[in-house]
Amino acid sequence: MSQDAAAAPSAAGRLDQPRARTPLELAWRQLLRYRLAVVGGVVLVCLYTAMLLAPFLAPYALDYSDRSVFYAPPVGVHFVDARGRVHLRPFVYAYRVVDLSVPQYALDTSRTYDIRVFVRGAPYRLFWLIPSDVHLLGVDPPARLFLLGTDQFGRDLLSRLLYGSVISLLIGLIVVVITFPIGMLLGGIAGFYGGWIDNVIMRSVEVLAAFPTFYLLLTLASVLPPTLSSGARLFMISAVFSLVGWGGLARVLRGIVYGVREVEFVLAARAAGARDFSVIVRHVLPSTTSYVIVAATLTIPGVILGESGLSFLGLGVQEPSTSWGLLLAQAQSIEALTQFPWLLIPGVMIVLAVLAFNFLGDGVRDALDPRQRST
Amino acid sequence: MIRYIGRRLLLLGPLLLGITFVSWAAIQLVPGSSDYFQSLVLQYPQITPARIAALRAEFGMDKPPLVQYLHWFWSILHLNFGYSFAYNVPVTYLIGTRALNTLLLSVTSLIAAWAIAIPLGIYSAVHQYTVTDGVLSTFAFVAISVPSFFSALLLLYAAFWTHALPLQGLQSANFDTLPWWGKILDEAQHLVLPTIALGVFSVGGLMRYMRTNLLDVLRSDYMRTARAKGLSERRVIFRHALRNAINPLVTLFGFELGGLLSGAAFVENVLGYPGLGRLVLQAVLQKDVFLVMGSLLMGSVLLVLGNLVADIMLAAVDPRIRYD
Predict the structure, then answer these.
(1) pLDDT level of residue B280 (50, 70, 90 thresholds)
(2) Residues of chain B positioned with their CB less than 8 A from the CB of A344
(3) Which of A272, B147, B170, B172 has its CA 20 to 30 A from that of A365?
(4) Minimum Cα–Cα distance from A327: chain B residue
């Protein structure tokens, strides 16, 4: 088929074009033209790379805490020391306690501590496999490399942000992997068969849609047993999101499937004796691909927001594992929020990730599904 | 029109039945994990098993689950939502004012969001591809990416250092001593922060929809006709384009309301606002089963009624919609 298609444009004089571009190539070119989508994509690649390399990039381990410097402000990175000498290698000063009851810290400027690269520290497993103890950055004690400050237990916020990104960034993907097959199958069945099956599925969708999503999420998350391991808990929370979220997808897919079920290629497949299930999965559902890809890119930011919200209220991820929402929860009291504003940084990370996904999703929609284009 | 409304109301019956069932099933999903009486043992170690059994029987919680559901459903039909274990008062008593507060917050946010988003969306569409349009569109993107709990925290931070507005709750400590106009003023002041925190999200979405819709309309043939017959640009946009571009936004109303109710749950918790979302959270944490079911039910009733109002409004403003 591609050869016929290629022949037409070249006959029309486009000799510089050796062959027709596939729809995917066209969509990709369209996407690259959309500047914000490219920016979003680049940001996401950076975030996910940092997530994979979290234990290496983090100066300290997830459970590291130095209770003598709780609520310490970000340590400044300096190039010029107290005597005005310029250092080529950036350095930090050690914290000096001024008043522990506030708490208030000053920097001990009598000695500088160079920031070193590839230092040995706490052991970890890179990609959950390769054992190592090399960290990208570090300083010699008693100085601490708290680039974004610490929390109430003297834990390094930057390290915890990096470790927390694993859950915050993965949960969106996990939920899409669980929700989409369910939503596609149920939507496909409803649209393909119609009748009472359609009725039952669509009425269930309507009942689910009648709840404010977050009330339902809150309630379902609260019945999860508190004894779950952190991995099992992550999976259960994803399951809760899927349970609440399959409806919207199923409704739209039902509409699309309903439209194509009388089209010739579907009739042909049925006439050739294909079983219903294989007709739905192999012939009907593929025509929903572009909608599904767009919906997936726009579902992920919603899930990231939802997980952050649950964890923020204490019903999502539990200590000792962490996520951006749980880290932001430390800023909930007015006192902590106003005295130690660096605790708000996890919120900035949430906004950044969600914004990047929204940019990308918008671009993907424009590229794949021009009918939905938002100009 | 009246027949249309009547038919919509009739359809609400089965929907509400489904909603009560899901409200009940949601907390039964993991058996035993939402057993309030068993959790009492942790709070009061000296409590005897006999006392727990007696309490359970008193609230009808010793029956099989399905019987409990039917019993609860039967009492809802009599507008009796059961009894809150933790507060020891009827659930209706707790939910009524909380639901009204949440509704107040959602509606003020909605009005504020529409009032800001629609003019900005119009401006953006009319000045498409200018620098201002770019800035406004980017702002809209950022706005839909900021979770309401984060915007609430940021506002709290700003308000704390400027001392401009009350930080928490809906009423000042001396509320009861104020004259009637003072009471209104007091509540209005307390509403500012939560309204902004909640409204930011909607502003972004509405602005984008307004811009897209208006651009679609501006490209249509009857706009060319309107311009061709020499109407002023102002008249073309406000009289001919705008009315058609706003209609789809009315359908968004129901969708917006769902988002607002969910978002309100966060804002209420961060800003200590006495609303339904805060009540749900406290109830699920205390395993106060009837209160959870009642709040879930109430939240969805608000949403369903909001959708109904939106549909009726749409039918009223858009003559293309036929109601039979």
Answers:
(1) confident
(2) 150, 153-154, 157
(3) B147
(4) B150
